[in-house]
Amino acid sequence: MKNLIITSITTLMIIALLVLPSEAQHHANHHQQTETTERFTDVPDNFKTMLTEAVEAYIAGKDAFLDSNLETATSEFENFIEKLEEIGEHGLDGEGHMAWMESYNGLMKHASALTASADIDDARKDFHHLSEELITAVNKFGIDGIVYQQFCPMALDSGGANWLSKNDEVQNPYKPETMLGCGEVIEKI
Fold first, then answer.
1. Structure pTM?
2. Please, where are the H alpha helices in the chain?
3. What CATH class does 42-188 carry?
4. Quick one: 80 exposed, middle or buried, by C-beta within 10 A (0-12, 13-18, 19+)?
5. SS3 67
6. Digits of tens for pLDDT over the chain (189 positions)?
C-alpha cells in the first residue's frame, strides 16, 4: 500500500512537470501574439509627427509608473490627451480615416479613465487597456522613430500586459517595486 501511494504521487508529480510548463508557455504565448494589423500607407508625415508626440507623452506617463507616482502619471497622461486632441478625431483623411476615428475614441476613453483613477493599481489597469489600443494605433499609422512593444506575463495578477518603451531595456511599469526587469521585448515597431 505504501509503495502504491509513493508510485501514485511520483506519477502525479511527473505529469505535473510535463503538463504545466506547456500550459504556462501556451498562456504566455496567448498574451504575446500581436494581431495582424492593417498598416495604412497614405498617412501624412505631419500626422505621424503628431502621433509621435502623443506616444512621447504616453512614455513619460509610463515612466512615472516606474516611480509609482500617480500624480505625475496623471499629469503626463493629461498631456497625452491634449496631444490626441491636437490631432482630433478627424485628423486623418483617406483610407485610414475610419480606423483613426476608432483608435482615437478608444485612446481617449482609456486615457480619460486612467487620469480619473485615484488609485495607482486602478490606473495601471487603465494603462494596460490604453497600451493595447496605442500599440494597435502605432502599428496601423506609424510614428517617427522606433518604439518597443514589451510584455510581462506576471503583470495584472499574472494575466499579462503589454506596454511601449523608447528603449529595448525592460522596465516594468506594472510591478516596478518587485519585478522591474520582468518582461521581454515582443516587437520593434
1. 0.82
2. 2-32, 45-66, 70-87, 97-116, 120-141, 155-158, 176-179
3. mainly alpha
4. buried
5. coil
6. 554 444 444 443 444 334 334 333 333 443 444 456 789 998 999 999 999 999 999 999 999 999 999 999 999 999 999 999 999 999 999 889 999 999 999 999 999 999 999 999 999 999 999 999 999 999 999 999 999 999 999 999 999 999 999 999 999 999 999 999 999 999 999
